[in-house]
Amino acid sequence: MDTNKEREITVAILSVSLITVMAGAIVAPAMSSLSHFFSEQSPSVIKLIVTLPALLVIPTAMVTGRLADRFGRRNLLLLGLILYLVGGLGGAFSANFYILLGFRAILGLSVGLVMPISTGLVSEFFHGEKARQMMGWVSAANHFGGMAAQIVSGALAIMSWRCSFGVYGIALISLIVVAFWLPEPTSHAQKGQTTPLPRKTYFNSVFMLLLMVIFYTVPLNISLFVEGTGMGSSTTSGIACALVTGAPFLVGIFFQKITTLLGKSAVFVAICTMGLGMFTIGEANNITTVFAGALLTGTGEGFLFPYVMNAVRATVAPKDSVRALAVMSSMLYFGQFISPIVIDALSGLFTTPSSNQPFMIACALCLAGATISLGFTVKQRINKKCEKTA
């Protein structure tokens, strides 16, 4: 591939990656303002503003692979970006809560189109170590976009919660870049019988679901926790959200080196780091400690996210990458949607609920995950030694 063309394709893919994973959570710093404005709605219903887009991603992503094969990756990506602008910016002009939810639903549909295609294009344009490196960069772009958007969203929310929805306008840049720089991949022309996806694809996709259930505890609850305990304002909450999504930016850039350095223990270390971050937030009595916990949480998630994406990508041929990553995307956003349901249900087991409970529950789930991961690692090493001695 020509160097200039490769650079243009890289920029196009990364520009789209900036706006996908944290799409629903971009307005999370404005949650407190939204709950006051729509005071007739319960806190659980208000959280739909953040989680509803994730729910709509699921059915859309499941058919994206077939639609992309029929209409082309590039065309479908452009349609998704247009819907993203409508669904994102439309929230600012909503006359009531239910119209706002309608625009959030459109946003979810758009992400269901954009996410699998933009990530799947990595396998269609890049191969080997370059593809693995690109997955790290995609993760870095995912989280950098979330970080920047949440900082701006938190600052705009001081003026009005409506202003915070203006951040979605960044998708216009992605739309222009894709229109001029992204070609249709040649693999689209490779027609053939559809092959079933391997079990590893589904196993890794469930891993992504569990990761999102735990990780999404932070953007959903940090605003209510920080402002409810008097530790800061919506701007402070935006900074905390930015840190938890910004730390993975650096981790994603160095993903390949970190994987090589930690080897098979990388997943265990990452889960432990994420759990320590949740515990730190839950025990915080000042905003500095909250920021430290956000960094730790983001660092752990920042490794696990590209790890799972790369594992899914590596299980299939390039022509099947959009289908495989559509399954993963569905589980990713389903995890985001059910996160408050799961965490609130577990919180309900306690007779004295408090604002820090979601983070302590997330910490306990990380501890369970780390134990399972350690068990798998030990089992693999034992099996390897048995094979050598056999």
TrEMBL record:
SUPFAM superfamilies in UniProt: MFS general substrate transporter
CDD domains: MFS_arabinose_efflux_permease_like
Domain of life (superkingdom): Bacteria
Location, primary (coarse class): membrane
Limits of the Major facilitator superfamily (MFS) profile domain: 9-381
Keyword list, A-Z: Cell membrane, Membrane, Transmembrane, Transmembrane helix
Ranges that cross the membrane: 12-32, 44-64, 76-99, 105-126, 138-159, 165-182, 202-225, 237-255, 262-281, 287-309, 321-339, 359-378
Entry-linked Gene3D superfamilies: MFS general substrate transporter like domains
Pfam families named in the record: MFS_1
Family matches, as InterPro entries: MFS, MFS_dom, MFS_Efflux_Transporters, MFS_trans_sf, Sugar_transporter_CS
Compartments where found: Cell membrane
Membrane topology recorded in Swiss-Prot or TrEMBL: Multi-pass membrane protein
Listed PANTHER family: CHLORAMPHENICOL EFFLUX PUMP RV0191, PURINE EFFLUX PUMP PBUE
Designated name of the protein: MFS transporter
Natural source organism: Pseudodesulfovibrio nedwellii
